[in-house]
Amino acid sequence: MNTTKKIDVSIFLKQIILIMGSVVMVIPFLWMILTSFKTLVETNHIPMIWLPSKFNFDNYFEVLDKLSFGKYYLNTIFITLSITLGQVFICSLAAYSFARLNFPGRNKIFFLLLCVLMIPSQMIIIPQYLLMVGFKWLNTYLALIIPNLPSAYGTFFLRQFFLTLPKELEDSAKIDGCSYFRTYWKIMLPLCSNALIAFTIFTVLWAWNDLLWPLIVTSKDSMRVLPVGIATLCGQYVTDYNLLMAASVMAILPMVVMYIFGQKYFISGIALTGIKA
């Protein structure tokens, strides 16, 4: 009986801690949504007002009128889809090569790839920008997509999963006369569906929220993505936070919906990163 009570108490304490953590995570999102319905006076009121006096959608309409939000959405969707499809294909192909094929210098090349993970992305921004200038790709979709197609993390992540697949599958494919690419495409890739979906979710989240690189390589309003467009609402001296929060709500809505339907794969993706080589 005492053991049962101890177990129940420990479970209860864990639940309380998890609930408290959830509240801490949810409060900023709740404040953002409520602020998107406030007036500017209510937003700047001290002490802070949680609930707006009247729920209205004027802020949303003002954002749509002030910004080319539809164009930003289309740019973001196109760039996110392009980066995601390209990155998943390139990284899965590289991961399969490192995991299942024997070629000279494989381990050394993979070690160099892992070294890339130790280099902050900010350190290569200037060389990348100079390349974009040399290629005359500034203010084009190529500058926003091509540099983001390779991913050392994605290659490492998928390689770890390819290593867990039985070698007998490849032997059977060779007996049936399958080429390396056909073995990868028809046999190995379908077996990695959970890892691919998890990596796809990670890539979509990163590409959708990327601010720094689009801000550097684009200056035309027609080429802006959602994070850059929303950043223009921040003034040098005064910021209309009610408009900023309304734009943020519209920007994150697709990602929230995606996470709700794909949270199982998102969590499994975090677990898959622990697969040993």
Report the mean per-residue pLDDT as an integer: 86
Question: What order do the SSEs take from the amino end to the carboxyl end, as H and E?
Answer: HHHHHHHHHHHHHH
- Count of helical regions: 14
- Structural class designation: mainly alpha
Low-confidence stretches: none
Shape: globular
Annotated CATH topology: MetI-like fold
Q: What top-tier CATH class fits best?
A: Mainly Alpha
Question: Biggest sheet, open or closed, and with what strands and sense?
Answer: none
Q: What is the CA–CA distance across the termini?
A: 44 Å
CATH architecture classification name: Orthogonal Bundle
Tell me the total number of β-strands.
Answer: 0
Beta-strand portion reads under 5%
User: Helix content range of the residues, please?
Assistant: over 70%
CATH superfamily: MetI-like
What radius of gyration results from the CA coordinates? 24 Å
Count of spatially separate domains? 1
